[in-house]
Amino acid sequence: MAPILGVILAGGLSRRMGGGDKPLRLLAGRTLLDRVVERFAPQCGLGVLLNANGDPTRFAGFPGPIVPDGVPDHPGPLAGILAALDHAAVHHPSATHVASVTGDAPFLPLDLVDRLRAGLSGAPIAMASSAGREHFTVALWAVSLRDDLRASLVGRGERRVGAFLRRHGAAAVDWATDPVDPFLNVNTPEDLAIAEDRLKVS
Q: What DSSP string runs through 108-144?
C-alpha cells in the first residue's frame, strides 16, 4: 500500500475541558499534542496534518500543515477528516488512505497504522477498538470516500461518525488495554489526572 498521510483532529470546542485548545494542555510537563505527534508521526510516511480552526499560529512548531475545516459551523470530526482527505487528494495524489487520531490521546499504539492497514480486509475504513468500545475517530480512511463524505456532511447534514462508518462497513481492529488503554483520551480535568497516573505504568 502507498505511504499513509496522518491527521490529528483538534478542531473541536473542548467544552468538557472548559474551552480552549485541549491538545495544548500539559501532561507531566509536555503538551498532549506533543505526545500524540511523537507516537503517531513516525507511522505516517507522508507526514501529519493538524486539523484545527482559528489562528494557526498558536500551534507554532507543529511539524506539518495546519488544515481547518472546509465546512462551516463546527460540524464535528467528520469535517476534519474530510479536510484531510481533500488535502491528500490535492497534495499527495498517490495517497490511497489517511489515518486519523485525536489530539488528546497520549498513549496511542506504536503499531496503530500498520495494524489498521492490515485490518482493512477489503473495507474502505478500519477503526480501532479496545475494551469493547469502538474509537470512531482513530481510523484509516480511503481517500476515495471524500465525495460521499462531503455529500453526507453538506447535502444530508450527517454529523455522526458512527453512522458513516456503519454505512461503509468499517472493520474494527482490537487492542489490549493492559497495562494502559492506548486510546485513553483526555476530555475532562479528571481524565488528565487519570492520564498522569497511567504514565507511571505505561
A: --TTHHHHHHHH-TT-SEEEEEETTEEEEEEEEEEGG
The helix (run of H) or strand (run of E) holding residue 5 is strand 5-9
pTM of this prediction exceeds 0.70: yes
Take residue 167 and report the three cell numbers written for it: 454505512
Closest C-alpha among 3, 53, 7, 2 to residue 146: 7
Cα–Cα distance between 183 and 104 in angstroms, integer? 9
pLDDT in tens, the chain (202 residues): 789 999 999 975 554 444 568 899 999 999 999 999 999 999 999 999 999 999 999 999 999 999 999 998 888 999 999 999 999 999 999 999 999 999 999 999 999 999 999 999 999 999 999 999 999 999 999 999 999 999 999 988 889 999 999 999 999 999 999 888 999 999 888 898 899 988 887 6
Closest CA to 73 of 13, 1, 142, 146: 13
Q: Domains of the chain (ranges plus CATH)?
A: 5-199 (3.90.550.10)
